[in-house]
């Protein structure tokens, strides 16, 4: 029994520290953890009073090491216990600036500071309340690190980490405690929404979604505006949502009938009296005036919610008065509730962009992506080719042979996670919240909106109405459609 232990110790000391370039998660974790231990030991040997600059430099290095170690720990959790990860739905209640990459590493450092006796400036009471949980995070984190180091040594000699029940249980425990500390710590540092506020915000999100569907059907906004995240939607959509909520949903989130201001969603609470007056006047508008009001709300001129009574009571131009109040309410939401508005618009984009509309068809195609074996061909006689070229060849071949549209299946879409940049070689721009991913309906590739502006019908692939195409497939589709026209 002593010989295997000696071999494991030898492997730990001689081999594992030199495997930083290894592909195995555990070996990478071991190297990162050893680096963290080295930096921590250097800090302990320094005199904080005499070497403040060096200590500050090493603390910054320590945070970077903790970030790397925590990132690998999370990857190991996803690899070893994917079904036991603690849910983090509570992050919906956090402001956008809180939920960022590396949050867990920052929480780890904060827990160590609290466990060591530090406090949170101006939040001493909150710091004392979460200190026991911080101590628990630190203690369980050390246990997890120790077990992972030991498992890295064992896996070097062929041991399977999934068979180590103790390690798996410890990873699940640490994940749960870290999530509990995250909720407590963030709640102490920034305002976090209550469940009631989140429910109210969800109701407003439903209203925004229904408003977008109504505006798309009525031609007030275009699908391309949503696909390309047009900035004007930040102005137009909240205005239309106020109008739609007062007209179509008398008992919805904007209802002021028999409802005090305290029961309204915080976004509209300050405008209770304005909404009540606007609702009463909207019922008196004739359809031509209503159409004029909708058209004005789709413009980007500003309104004013402070002169509600004077403007709405003016019989000379009731439409102008209603526009001014509705636009003023919506514009105040944009100014005072920026995070909530981003959340609402994100819900609309996710539900109503072209990608979401075609998601069912795309997911079905991706889930059933198999080799299409044609009659008379060997099932193993296939090769991977460039997706754009294969799509062009597919359309040209189908058009040349006169194949029916139903006989040719469009290619499966490339997953969103496959690329962070536009795959057009002439572009290559990184995807952002404003430069979003779009799929070409012909080749299934990932492109930015600028590289997929073309719209053409593809009957040969089953698309009778114009669909989004990349530049290369647009040229091929034009040639195919021209050939089909000549043949006809």
UniProtKB/TrEMBL annotation:
Signal peptide residues on this chain, from the entry's feature table: none
InterPro entries tied to this protein: LST-2 (IPR051118), Znf_FYVE (IPR000306), Znf_FYVE-rel (IPR017455), Znf_FYVE_PHD (IPR011011), Znf_RING/FYVE/PHD (IPR013083)
Annotated Gene Ontology cellular component terms: early endosome membrane
Domain FYVE-type: 418-473
Pfam families found in the cross-reference section: FYVE
Coiled coil: 48-75
Molecular function GO terms recorded: zinc ion binding
UniProt key word Metal-binding: yes
Keyword annotations of the record: Coiled coil, Metal-binding, Zinc, Zinc-finger
Protein name: FYVE-type domain-containing protein
């Amino acid at each position: 029994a002593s010989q295997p232990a000696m071999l494991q110790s030898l492997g730990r000391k001689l081999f594992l520290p030199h495997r930083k370039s290894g592909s195995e998660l555990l070996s990478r974790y071991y190297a990162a953890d050893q680096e963290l231990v080295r930096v921590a030991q250097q800090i302990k040997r320094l005199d904080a009073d005499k070497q403040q600059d060096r200590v500050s430099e090493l603390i910054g290095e320590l945070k970077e090491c903790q970030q790397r170690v925590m990132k690998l720990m999370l990857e190991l959790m996803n690899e070893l216990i994917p079904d036991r990860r603690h849910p983090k739905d509570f992050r919906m209640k956090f402001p956008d600036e809180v939920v960022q990459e590396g949050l867990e590493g920052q929480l780890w450092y904060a827990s160590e500071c609290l466990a060591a006796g530090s406090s949170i400036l101006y939040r001493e009471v909150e710091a004392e309340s979460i200190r026991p949980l911080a101590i628990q995070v630190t203690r369980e984190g050390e246990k997890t690190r120790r077990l992972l180091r030991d498992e890295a040594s064992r896996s070097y000699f062929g041991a399977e980490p999934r068979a180590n029940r103790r390690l798996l249980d410890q990873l699940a425990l640490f994940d749960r405690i870290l999530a509990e500390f995250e909720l407590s710590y963030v709640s102490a540092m920034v305002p976090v929404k209550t469940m009631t506020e989140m429910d109210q915000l969800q109701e407003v999100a439903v209203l925004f979604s229904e408003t977008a569907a109504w505006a798309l059907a009525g031609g007030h906004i275009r699908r391309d505006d949503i696909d390309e995240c047009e900035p004007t939607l930040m102005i137009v959509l909240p205005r239309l949502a106020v109008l739609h909520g007062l007209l179509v949903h008398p008992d919805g989130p904007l209802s002021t009938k028999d409802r005090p201001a305290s029961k309204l969603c915080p976004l509209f609470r300050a405008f209770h009296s304005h909404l009540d007056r606007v609702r009463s006047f909207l019922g008196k508008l004739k359809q031509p005036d209503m159409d004029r009001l909708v058209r004005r709300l789709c413009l980007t001129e500003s309104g004013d919610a402070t002169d509600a009574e004077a403007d709405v009571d003016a019989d000379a131009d009731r439409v102008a008065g209603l526009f001014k109040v509705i636009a003023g309410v919506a514009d105040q939401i944009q100014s005072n509730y920026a995070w909530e508005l981003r959340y609402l618009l994100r819900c609309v984009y996710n539900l109503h962009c072209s990608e979401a509309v075609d998601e069912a068809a795309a997911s079905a195609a991706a889930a059933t992506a198999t080799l299409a074996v044609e009659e008379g061909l060997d099932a193993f006689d296939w090769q991977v080719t460039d997706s754009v070229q294969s799509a062009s060849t597919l359309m040209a071949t189908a058009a040349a042979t006169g194949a029916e549209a139903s006989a040719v299946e469009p290619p499966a879409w490339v997953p969103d996670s496959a690329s962070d940049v536009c795959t057009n070689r002439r572009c290559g721009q990184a995807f952002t919240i404003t430069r979003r991913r779009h799929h070409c309906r012909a080749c299934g590739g990932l492109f930015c909106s600028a590289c997929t502006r073309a719209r053409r019908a593809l009957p040969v692939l089953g698309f009778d109405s114009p669909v989004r195409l990349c530049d290369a497939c647009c040229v091929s589709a034009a040639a195919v459609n021209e050939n089909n026209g000549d043949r006809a």
